[in-house]
Amino acid sequence: MTDPSSPLRVILVDDEHLIRSALATMLSLEADLEVRGEAGAVSDGVDLARAEQPDVAVVDLQLPDGDGLEACTRIGEVSPATRCLILTSHARPGYLKRALAQGVLGFLPKTTSAEQLAQAVRAVAAGRRAIDPELAAETISSGDSPLTPREADVLEYAADGAPVEQIARRAHLAEGTVRNYLSSAQAKLQASNRHEAVGIARRQGWI
Predict the structure, then answer these.
(1) Residue 62, SS3?
(2) Whose C-alpha in 27, 46, 97, 195 is 20 to 30 A from the C-alpha of 143?
(3) Cα separation of 204 and 162, whole Å?
(4) Could you report the per-residue pLDDT of 135-187, keeping only the tens digit for each?
(5) What is the distance between the alpha carbons of residues 107 and 96, in angstroms, rounded to a whole number?
(6) Nearest to residue 204, comparing CAs of 152, 145, 135, 161?
(7) Cα gap 193→64, rounded to integer Å
(8) What is the pLDDT of residues 46-75, one digit of tens each?
(9) DSSP label at 27?
(10) What is the strand order of the sheet 33-39 is part of?
C-alpha cells in the first residue's frame, strides 16, 4: 500500500521526446508527484513499470511498437497496482469506449492543461475516473462505430488527402496494411471513396 505521505510515483510512456520531457517537467513541479522514469515504446514502458512499480503510468495512445491500451494491459501484468492514464492527440469515442472496457481510468487529450493533468493523475491514483468531459459527451452521442480503432486511425490520417506512403509513415504501418484498412473502412461505411468515408465517419463522431 502506498504511503500517503510519499509522493505518487509516475512513469511516462510517449515516443515524442519533446512532449515527454515537457510532461515530466510539468508533473515534477507538483510536490506530491514524482516522475520515476520515461520510455518511448511499449516494451520499454513495460520494463520501466516492472522496475519502478509506479502508482500511475501516463501513456500515449500511439506508440511505435503497439498502442497505449496494449501498453496498459502489459504494464498491469508486471505491476498490478499501477493505474493507467491515456494522454493522446487521438481523442475519439471509439478509443475511449475500448479504454473503458479495458478498465483504464484516465483518458485525456494532449491539449489538457498542466493543472488538469496533475489533478487527473491524483484521481487515477485514488481509483477515480479522469475522463475528458467533451469526449465523454461525444462518446455517449456517437453510437457504436463499425470501425476498428486502427481503421479509424488510418481514415483520420487520410482526411487531408495524404498519399498511402505518408499515411503509412504517420501510422507506423506497412503501405499494404494501410490500403487494407482504407478498403475495409470504405466498405463498412458504404462509401465510394476514402474522402466520402472520412465525411461519414466525421459526421458520426467516429474520427
Answers:
(1) strand
(2) 195
(3) 22
(4) 888 777 667 788 888 898 899 899 889 999 999 998 889 999 999 999 999 99
(5) 7
(6) 145
(7) 28
(8) 999 999 999 999 999 888 887 898 899 999
(9) H
(10) 33-39, 8-13, 56-60, 83-88, 106-109, 130-131
In the numeric block, which cell numbers belong to residue 170?
A: 504517420
Q: Are 163 and 194 in contact (CB under 8 A)?
A: no
Helix (H) or strand (E) holding 156: helix 149-157
Q: Please say whether the beta carbons of 154 and 179 come within 8 A.
A: no
Grid cell locating 40: 518511448
Q: How far apart are CA 118 and CA 168, in angstroms?
A: 34
**CA-based radius of gyration for the chain:** 18
Residue among 163, 151, 131, 160 nearest 207 (CA): 151
Which residue has 500515449 as its cell numbers? 60
Query: Burial letters for 24-58: b for 16+ Cβ neighbours within 10 Å, e otherwise?
Result: bebbeebeebebbbbbbbbebbbebbeebebbbbb
Domains defined along the chain, listed by start: 8-140 (3.40.50.2300), 149-203 (1.10.10.10)
- Record the cell numbers describing residue 7, joined without a space: 509522493
88: helix, strand or coil: strand
* CA–CA separation, 12 and 4 (whole Å): 21
